[in-house]
Amino acid sequence: MDLHYLxxxxxxxxxxxFTKAAESLHISQPALSVQIKKLEGQLGMKLFxxxxxxxxxxxxxxxxxxxxxxxxxxxDEAEHILLNKTECIIGSVNxxxxxxxxxxxxxxxxxxxxxxxxxxxxNLHIANTDETAHMVINGQVDFxxxxxxxxxxxxxxxxxxxxxxxxxxxSPLNRLSEKEFVKPSDFADINFVSHxxxxxxHKFLENFIQEMKIPSRIAMKFGGIDAxxxxxxxxxxxxxxxxxxxxxxxxxxLIKELRIRGKSWSYPYSLIYxxxxxxxxxxxxxxxxxxxxMYDLRIPPK
Length: 302
Known about the structure:
Radius of gyration: 24 Å
Strand content: 15-25%
C-alpha cells in the first residue's frame, strides 16, 4: 500500500467529508476522490459507503482506519522527537523569495535560524513572483515566500502568512510630500516608477492607478526594488511599495509616505511549497520559524 494514499485516506476518515479533507490537504476535491479510488483499487475493496451526499466508513474502512491511526500517530511521534533534537537538524535548505520578502524579510530569519542550527546550509534564491512560483513547481526550492495574490498551479500548497502595509512612497523633494493628505487629482502631472512588467509589484501599482482613476504615467521601470527606491529618492517618480521594503528609508527621512484620507492598501505574502515534495526536518524547522516570525510582523506600523 502506498503511504501517500494511506495519509489521504486517514485524513478523509477523520474529517468525514471530501470537502473538508481536500481543504486540509491543500488539494482539490476531484484529485482527492481520484486518489482514494486508486487506493481502493490497490486493495480490491471499497472503504466508504455513500449515504445521500455524505460518506461513511464501511467495515473495511473502519478496520483500515484503526491501523492508519496507529501508523500516523507513530509517524507524528517520531517526527516530534527528531525535530526537537538539535543535533539531528542537518543538511541543506533551498528557500525561494520574491523581491520584497527575499531581500528584506527572509535574510534576518535565516540568520536567526543559522545561529540555532549551524550545521544546516541555507541557500536563498530571489526572483520575481512568477519565477518564484516556477521554482517551487520545478523542485528547485523546498519552499518559498511569495508576494501578491497569484493563481497557483494545483500542485502548490499555499499558506497565507501576513499582509504588509503598502506605502505610497515619494521623495522629500517632491511637492506632494509637504501635504498632510493628498488627493487623486494631485497626481495628474506626477510620474510613477515601477518594477518590471512581469512582476506582481507592477500589477499592484497599476491596480492602484486604476482604482484612483489617475492618468497612467509610469515613466520608468526597474528590475529591482533598490533601483526603484533610488529613483524615488532622486524625485524621478513615486511608487506603491511594501513597508518592509522602505522601512529604513522612511525612518531615515530618505523617502516620505504620501497619505490619501480614508485609504490604505496592503501587500500579501504567502508560504508556498509543492504538495509532493519531501520536507526534511531542517526544512520543516525553517518553515515553522518563517511562519512565527512573519506572524509577528502582522501588526501594521503606525
